[in-house]
């Protein structure tokens, strides 16, 4: 067992021992909505998580995030990026009668494309460093390191067939076209990534695309304005917290869940404490806002 897992289990045990899990449900979660954020978990992990979370709360679609509660905590399940592995989760969604939202990058699914941070070039150049560059600089760096070397077999997004198979059971929504850091884009790039993504998803899947998720959780008032102008009804951040009818629909709060979280670590993450501590370490503030570039 590596040191990261040991530390997680120690913190999880402390959270449970001191009753912080129960306190968070009573004081913070209450009858509000926890929007859980995954990326690419294994089916067996998600199955355990959903089995557990359904003992604590009602699981609802993201579209009902502002609906009137019935006194019980609620949760909405979301996934970012549209990773190919999400297709393996379909039996889990059906088993638990859960309708998740998967936020798609419209140019990285349904075609032989690779999410940029999974490119060998990105790993060579340093993924976190690339995120902090302007969008033009990031693309130039990837080109310099040979980003065109990946072939069709390397595609990392959901295929057209998988999207069609999942469509009756999943809400597919927007996560930009190519997943740039929007705050590192110029006005034209930012607006195009937000608005064109919506029309591309609607055309590709024949659905109404009404919800958006900010890549990497990075946004400013500019991004919020573009999202509103594009006609979206909500936008999900990576800011820590719970939601109700009074929440800003274009700044929905989230609880980020580790894709490989053990059941005890998942229970700890539902309190928000691990994410709060991580944000505190990186952003050095007590707000619960995700670190911004």
TrEMBL record:
Domain of life: Bacteria
Molecular-function GO terms, alphabetical: hydrolase activity, acting on carbon-nitrogen (but not peptide) bonds
InterPro entries in alphabetical order: Glyco_hydro/deAcase_b/a-brl, NODB_dom, Polysacch_Deacetylase
Keyword list, A-Z: Signal
GO biological process, one term: carbohydrate metabolic process
Gene3D superfamilies assigned to the protein according to its UniProt record, in alphabetical order: Glycoside hydrolase/deacetylase
Entries under PROSITE patterns matching the protein: NODB (PS51677)
Pfam families the record matches: Polysacc_deac_1
NodB homology domain segment(s): 73-293
PANTHER family to which the protein is assigned, alphabetical: CHITOOLIGOSACCHARIDE DEACETYLASE, PTHR34216
Protein's UniProt name: Polysaccharide deacetylase
Native source organism of the sequence: Caballeronia temeraria
């Amino acid at each position: 067992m590596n040191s990261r897992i040991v530390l997680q289990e120690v913190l999880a045990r402390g959270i449970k021992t001191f009753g912080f899990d129960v306190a968070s449900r009573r004081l913070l979660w209450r009858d509000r909505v926890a929007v859980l954020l995954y990326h690419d978990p294994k089916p067996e992990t998600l199955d355990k998580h959903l089995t557990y979370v359904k003992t604590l709360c009602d699981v609802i679609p993201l579209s009902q995030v502002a609906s009137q509660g019935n006194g019980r905590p609620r949760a909405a399940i979301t996934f970012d990026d549209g990773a190919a592995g999400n297709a393996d989760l379909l039996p889990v969604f059906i088993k638990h009668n859960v309708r998740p939202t998967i936020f798609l990058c419209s140019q990285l699914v349904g075609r032989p494309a690779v999410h940029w941070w999974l490119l060998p070039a990105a790993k060579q150049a340093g993924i976190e460093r690339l995120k902090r560059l302007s969008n033009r600089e990031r693309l130039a760096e990837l080109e310099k390191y040979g980003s065109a070397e990946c072939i069709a077999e390397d595609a990392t997004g959901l295929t057209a067939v998988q999207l069609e198979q999942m469509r009756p059971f999943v809400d597919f929504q927007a996560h930009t076209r190519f997943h740039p850091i929007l705050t590192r884009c110029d006005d034209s790039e930012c607006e195009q990534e937000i608005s064109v993504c919506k029309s591309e998803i609607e055309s590709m899947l024949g659905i109404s695309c009404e919800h958006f998720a900010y890549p990497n959780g990075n946004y400013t008032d500019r991004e919020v304005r573009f999202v509103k102008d594009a006609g979206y009804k909500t936008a999900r951040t990576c800011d820590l917290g719970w939601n109700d009818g009074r929440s800003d629909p274009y700044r929905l709060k989230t609880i980020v869940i580790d894709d490989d979280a053990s059941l005890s670590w998942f229970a700890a993450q539902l309190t928000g404490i691990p994410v709060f501590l991580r944000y505190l370490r990186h952003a050095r503030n007590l707000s619960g806002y995700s670190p911004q570039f």
